[in-house]
Structures are given as C-alpha cells and as structure tokens.
Amino acid sequence: MTLNRRSFLGTGLALGAALSAPRAIGQAKPRVVIVGGGAGGATAARYIAKDSQGAIDVILIEPTRTYYTCFFSNLYIGGFRELNSIAHNYGGLASEYGVNVVHDWVIGVDRDAKTVSTAAGHSLAYDRLIVAPGIDFVDGAVPGWSTAAQNKMPHSWKAGSQTQLLKAQIEAMPEGGTFCMVAPPNPYRCPPGPYERISMVAHVLKERNPTAKILVADPKPKFSKMALFQEGWERHYTGMVEWLGPDFGGGNVSVDPDAMTVDIDGSVEKVDVCNVIPAQKAGHIAQVAGLTDASGFCPIVPATMQSRMDENIHVLGDATIAGDMPKSGFSANSQAKVAAMAVRAALTGSRAFPAKFSNTCWSLIDTDDGVKVGASYQATEEKIAKVDGFISQTGEDAALRKATYEESLGWYAGITADMFG
Amino acid sequence: MRESFILALVLTLGGVGQGVAEETAQAIGDPEAGADVWILCSGCHQIGPDAEIGIGPPLSGIFGRRMASVEGFPYSRSMMRMGRDGLIWSLETLDAYIENPRVLVSGTRMGFEGLEDPTERADLLAFLREFSDKPSNIPEAAPTALAALPTLSDETLAIVGDAAYGEYLASECTTCHQRDGSDRGIPSITLWPEENFVLAMHAYKQKLRPHPVMQMMASRLSDEEIAALAAYFATLGR
Ligand SMILES: Cc1cc2nc3c(=O)[nH]c(=O)nc-3n(C[C@H](O)[C@H](O)[C@H](O)COP(=O)(O)OP(=O)(O)OC[C@H]3O[C@@H](n4cnc5c(N)ncnc54)[C@H](O)[C@@H]3O)c2cc1C
Q1: N or C: which end of chain A has fewer CB within 10 A?
Q2: What mean pLDDT is predicted for residues A326-352?
Q3: Given CB atoms, is A326 within the 8 Å cutoff of chain B?
Q4: Could you tell me which residue ranges the Sulfide dehydrogenase [flavocytochrome c] flavoprotein chain central domain spans (chain A) (predicted)?
Q5: pTM of structure
Q6: Alpha-carbon Rg of chain A, whole angstroms?
Q7: Do B135 and A324 touch (CB under 8 A)?
Q8: Residue of chain A minimizing CA distance to B61
Q9: What digits encode the pLDDT tens for the residues A14-34?
Q10: A359 touches chain B (CB under 8 A)
Q11: Minimal CA–CA distance to A333: which of A345, A317, A346, A354?
Q12: Rounded to a whole number, what is the distance in angstroms from the first to the last CA of chain B?
C-alpha cells in the first residue's frame, strides 16, 4: 500500500513535539501505544480507554483507514454478505473513547528508550506497548509463490482487496473449470477458515458453474471440524470437492503463477483459480522488535499477555504463541481484555482479576448450515491451557444448524462493536 | 514502573497469603515423570510420529479417539462393543482404564494389572497427552489441563449463607484449620472472602482440586452448607 501522510483522528493531540517529547516519570499521564488496529489491538485500545476513563493516554497506530474483518470474509465470497458489511473504521474509537488513532506504519521499536518509530518519521514514547500486528507469510513456503504473485494467485488471508479479487476470479471461472487451494501447515490464523472457504466456493460454483471442480492440496492429515466439513461437502456439494492430504502428495506442492499450474507431488495440473495460503509467522514488526522466538511467533506470559522478552510489552492475537488457543479473532479479542486489565493495573493500580480466556469459531457450510467449535482456557504458569470445550456433532438437524448460523450473526455484531464501539 | 509491575503480578495471583483462591488451571501431571511410567506400557505400545501397531495399538492421537478404532488391530469383543457405543478415550476414560482395565472393559485383552497410584497415572496421562492433537491447531482436541474453578450457576452463587449454621458446621473444619487464622502447615481459611470460599469448596466437591481430604469433606456438604460455612468464616473474629 502507499503511505498516506500522517493523519490524526480524534482528540486532537498536538502533533510531533507532544508525541516525541521525553516523558518525565511521575508527571504526565501514563501512555499506552498500540501497534495494529485489528481484533487484538482495537479491542485493547477501546477497553483501556473506556475503563481508565481518561487516566491513560491511548495511541493506536494502524496504517489502514478501513479494517476489513477476515471473519465473515468467506461469507462475502459465498454471497452471504456485502463487502461493506465487513468494513469498519476507527472514527468511533476516536470520537467516543478518546483513542488517538494514527494512520501510519510502525517500523521500529527501541525497547531501551521505550519509543516506537513510524514510517512517517515520528517517534512516540510509551510506558506500555501493545503489539498486535497479526500475521505475515513465511517466504518461500510454497515454491514458486511470493507476495509479488498475489494478484495472480491470491491468498485472501488478509481481508479487503485480496478477498474481492478472489471472489471475482471464482465468478469468472470457465464452465467446468478448476479451483485449487493450497492449504497452509499449522499453525495459521483461523484453523477452520480454509475449509469454510472451500464450502463457500462450492456454494457459489454449485449455483453458477456446477460442473466446476475444487481441489485442495493440504499438508495436514487432519484439520479442525474435519468430519463436519466432509459430511457437509458430501451432502451439499456431492463429488465437487477433492481433498488431497499428505498421503496423496498434498504436502509436496509448488506453483507457477504465470502458467497457472500447480504441481502436486509431481503431477502438474492446469487450474483456473489458485488460492495459495502460505505458512505464517507473526507480523513482521514483532520480529523487528525482537519479540519472536525460533517459531516465528511471540512467547507470552499467560496471566498478562506480556512478552517473555520484555515486561513493558504485551503481545496479542495471531502474533502470539497462545498455548492451546487457536489464532482467531475471538481469541485475540479475549486476550486483549486480559492485557487491558493488566496494563491498567500496572499503570494506574486498578484491580486485576485472574485471566480467563475463551474462543468459539463458527463456520458456514451452506445456507443455514452452521457449525461451531469452542473452548474455555485458563492460564497456567507455562501456557494458556484448554480446560473445557464443545463442538457441533455430525448428523445434527436443520433447525439446530440454522440456530448455530444465527448465533454467528449475533457474534459478529457483538465482536465488531466490542472492537470499534 | 517496576513496583507497579510487581503489584500487577501480585494482584493477578490474587494476593498471596490472603488465602484467596488460586485460580490458575492445574496441569494434568508431570509429563517427564510420566515418561518413566511409560516404561510399563512401552513393551506393547508404541507412541510418536512413526508409531505402529505392536502387541498393542499405537497410542499417538489416543485422546479424542473412539475406542477400538485403529484399523487392523485385533481388539477384544468387549472393546469393539464400547467403540460401537461411541465411547471416546478422554482423561476420564483413560484414567479409569489404566487404574483397572477390567473394570472399564471387562473382556479386554490388555494384560496389565492396573496402576493404583493416582500421581503415577496423572503423570502418565500428561505424557500421553503430548502425543495427541494440539487444541491450538484443532480447537476441538482434548483439554490439556484441569480447570481450577468450577462454573457455578447463578442460583448457587446467590445462596445467602446462614452464618450461625456455619458456626456449627465449622467445628469439623477447625479441627485442622486454626480459628485465629494462623497457618501451621494447614492454610488459614479465616476471613476468606465468601465467593472465593464457595468456589474453592465446589472445586473440591467436583474434584477439580486434587486434595483428597478436602474432596472428601466437600463431597458431604450441600450447596447451602457451603454457603453457610463461607458466611461464617468470612466474618470470624470481626
Ligand atoms: C478467511 C478467514 C476467516 C476467518 N474467520 C474467523 C472467524 O469466523 N472467527 C474468528 O474468530 N476468527 C476468524 N478469522 C481469524 C481472525 O481474522 C484473526 O485471527 C484475527 O484478525 C487476529 O487478530 P489480530 O489483532 O492478531 O490481527 P489482525 O486482525 O490481522 O490485525 C492486525 C492489524 O495490524 C496492522 N499492522 C500490521 N503491521 C503493522 C505495523 N507495522 N504498524 C502498524 N500496524 C500494523 C494491520 O494493518 C492489521 O490491521 C478468520 C481469518 C480468515 C483469514
């Protein structure tokens, strides 16, 4: 993306000087800087601003003015949502909660000086830093593919123009054409996401292009809600989806974006659409800040979401190694509330209660056929551990599946309000 | 900053020494100690990425697996029946089976006497759990820890304790727990906030907390009696 001039929304912070002035301890209000305005960062900004009632300065740095949620982006592909229904902006965080929203990229973190630097050339001091940059892709994960090829073979694993592009490509497929997905290895954002996407693509093709084929090359022998998805594909999209796990070469894949071919274990296939979802790591800035370990993700202290590398920094969401929690918007939102409480306790002495985490992932298989998997988690010293959970069952009746789908609509409205006010 | 960091930690841990409920989840057991117990199993069973059928079926991925579902293994008829009934290997079923195989599956072919020591079983289960699906990748995978606190209904939490009845019941507690709040090897429960007391007692009652004596004491108390004790100890000596 092109970088816009720096821009400030909301409570009219004096530019430049005020932001970068060294902070005298004990004088000014404590300041929290948040990197990334997604499920983790936006929630943390709102909760800290709301609950500290002006006692803490909150600055949220996010390059984009419109945040497209990845959650429900598959439903947009399937024709169940409009694009603008998954678009959100930061106006409410600024005007209602007094969050200083800065549209800029963070390009460096000086942990000793406790400042961050931005692409527009600013330096901002913090008392606590929250890092929630989501994911980036591992270079070379799928031979032949790089982000330079993302217009020919979209990932659509960050929502917005990529999602639009993939939808347009699916709708333009020739009659009887082939859609191929290169599924990611663990760990990646949204464990059931690729398979919900397959369901939505099948839904579109069944209506528009019923002789088309869907091919999934998967390096994993098993995935979340597998039995539920396979049952649904068999029932709604009989014969359309071919899933190749590692036993059938699904883990040995390369692509040629110019030729639009996919090589699966030595057999080369010409395809019409190729959705490459590469292996993932924490958003680049987490690595620049020295918060990642060899896994490419950030180890954290479960009770507070503090980085194991730096007690003045909290890391949230997909960028973390969150023990048993999957990488999801629900998880990031849940972790953000724990971190917000810990940050307020540290900076203003407010009460902190024991950390409690939860997650539920809904997926839509076809019209009114929703399924879900969820769990609750508690912190042990070592990790965030799953202590309980539930999952939809195969063979459930239509009324229950419809109710599950409707529940997901309520969840979407709830979480986006919880993030953006 | 440093002080407030420590303050935050203390707050998060719930105020050490005040007798406030420790609310972190409990590990299943110690997987390293479990690796030693595994020696009892490894003559017949394999585990790990390349595990295959040996004298017994491979135990990678056992958590969440339907009983008798490894293809190609000649299970006993009892085990097959349980599999057909949809029984799943979980912490609870595995623990019962390892404690005494024939109690859970009467005609099992597994030639193992059973493991009486609950700590050894817990450690073994913690070891086995490391070789099954991770909930971070497959959210529906089996839990990896035990909840420290029970989830109580609003009705249970709303019961107003009868402190006078609590005083009567408390004589059983004060045999061990000092009324004056001193801690001589047995933690103080005097002046414990009511809700924490209620949660902790229900955690013992539901066997979420491991202490066998407390599990036994709590198992005999009704919800009203727990509330009464909580009300009594919360105000004791005030
Ligand atoms: C197809 C799909 C479907 C999904 N469905 C669901 C679902 O149904 N339910 C669910 O719970 N989850 C779902 N998810 C997962 C969910 O979208 C993510 O887990 C969630 O967005 C993670 O939140 P986050 O805050 O870690 O990252 P993000 O939401 O990605 O936010 C990160 C933000 O940081 C910004 N950023 C990055 N680098 C910088 C920098 N250097 N400086 C400043 N800002 C920066 C980015 O612009 C971005 O806005 C889905 C994901 C996909 C791909």
Answers
A1: N
A2: 95
A3: yes
A4: 163-278
A5: 0.83
A6: 22
A7: yes
A8: A222
A9: 334 344 444 444 458 999 999
A10: yes
A11: A317
A12: 36
